[in-house]
Amino acid sequence: MKPLLFALCCFPLMLFGQFEAPPASPPATNSVQAGYTNLSVTYHRPNVRGRDIFGALVPWEQVWRAGANDNTLLELSGMATIGEHKVAPGQYSLYFIPKPDGNWILILNSATDNWGTRGYSAAKDVLRQTVKARRLAQRIETLEYRWMNLHPQSVDLVLEWGWWRVSCTLKLPTDAQVAARAEKELERPADPNDFYLAARYYLDNDLDLGQAKAWMDHWEKEGEEQFGRMRYQAIIEYKLGNTSRGVQLMKRSLELARKAGNAHYVSMNERSLREWERIVTEIDPEELLRESITYHDPESQWNNRTHLIQLAESRPGGSVRHTRLSFNPGKGDFDMQQTRGKDKIQLRYLGGTYGFSHNGRTNIGDSTRQRLNLTEDRTNVLRDYYSYLWGLPMKLRDPGTLIQPTIHQVWFADEQLLEMEVHYAPDTGKDIWFFYFDPVTKALRGYAFYHDKDGPGTGEYIILEDEALVEKMRIPARRHWYQTQGRLYLGTDEILK
């Protein structure tokens, strides 16, 4: 009887003892595969909850546990490189030393069973690497780690919390691993499509196209015709300069895609064939430029007065920077006011004098001046940058501009346009530019450039959308930026009314 009574008395207490409140900083794991390597970060996620985080709750210049509760853990299934440091496969605790200038220190440590920084010992550090942190335009309430910019050869581990984002790039030996596997496994492959897979990797990752072609030649001999694989065989040939062979293969791929009813490949192949077509015209480059300038600046205002432009500059991830520009190209005067999160800055060059302000104050500390790059050199760079891009096509009259003699009719951004190639004198610039004009109105519709040392297929291209009137000049209302390689979106600049 007594044991039964004891059990009944304890039962309510046992029920009460089972209650668990939700954790204040719940656990999370984010995993990814990059190349042949599996990576994961395991951590706890505290909220801001109205607190000042970095520089207050988390002091500057001190080791921080990079999360909450027990160790934040980074795990790798293969070798990686951070900065100049080789990191062996395994599990590591992750720490940061935050710094107000944005040059944070990332720490990997071999002890993985500590609670926060309790028990942390620098003697067990595997590496310390300076990484870049920057302020965000919007506050992030809940601490989060993400894997971003995922490539076979690298991936970025990104931490966001409060007003800060810090990013660390891990480089991976994937290219060497692919080459080693190909050498071993493609000697006598069981499936000829393995040749295609290796060639496609080399194509997609800008490796040896001669080797990619050799593998595709093996596939062509031993495999069956297939529109998808033939498309990439055509691209390899075209990039190697075998234009007629590339066009021939692309047309055959298009024919097979149509027979298969694959609208996606039909569309891609038709687009490639259009983009590869470059028709020489008899148009005089000087006349084309004259007509375009007349269209955009009919009263020759560009060099003869001060212009005011207000911009919203958006970037991937949702950040938007508001910029007010005032410049007089003829005099060289320039004034830029810009909002970056909590920072409102001004850089100006007026009448031969430089000036700077931060949040309305001209007395700026050295650390703030350095963090925001408030310098004369930066002012000159921004003046040249903004006046060039918003002054096109008028800026093509500047000294040192070398307009090439042949105008081509090409496809650019799904439009048939006129292409003008422009080089620059050595003391002016080393980029190769291409400008695209409407064949009827001669309006500038876009442009592209690459650095001469990098070659074609690199650099960026810009698509212009709609028009805005600034005084009586027709200026592009929106500029959309893309990286040429992979057509990666970089941002949009929009004129505000």
| Helix-strand category | alpha+beta
Cα distance spanning the termini: 87 Å
Provide the spatial order of strands within the biggest beta sheet. 10-16-17-18-19-20-21-22-11-12-13-14-15
DSSP E strands, number:
22
Strand count, sense and barrel status of the largest sheet are: 13 strands, antiparallel
Can you give the mean pLDDT?
93
Q: Which oligomeric form is depicted?
A: single chain
Ranges with pLDDT <50 over ≥5 residues? 4-9, 11-15
Strand content is: 35-45%
Global shape: flat
Number of domains: 4
Question: Can you describe this structure?
Answer:
This protein is 27% helix and 39% strand. It has a 13-stranded antiparallel sheet. The protein has a 7-stranded antiparallel sheet with strand order 1-2-3-6-7-8-9, with no helix packed on it. It has 10 helices and 22 strands. The chain is flat, with a radius of gyration of 29 Å. With 497 residues, it is of the alpha+beta class. α4 packs antiparallel against α5, α5 runs antiparallel to α6 and α6 (243-260) packs antiparallel against α7 (263-276).
Secondary-structure blueprint of this entry?
Elements: H1 2-17, E1 27-34, E2 37-44, E3 72-76, E4 80-82, E5 85-87, E6 90-97, E7 103-109, E8 125-151, E9 154-171, H2 174-185, H3 193-204, H4 209-222, H5 227-239, H6 243-260, H7 263-276, E10 279-280, H8 285-296, E11 307-314, E12 320-328, E13 333-340, E14 343-350, E15 353-358, H9 366-371, H10 376-390, E16 401-412, E17 415-424, E18 431-437, E19 444-451, E20 460-470, E21 473-483, E22 488-495
Helix pairs in contact: 3-4, 4-5, 5-6, 6-7
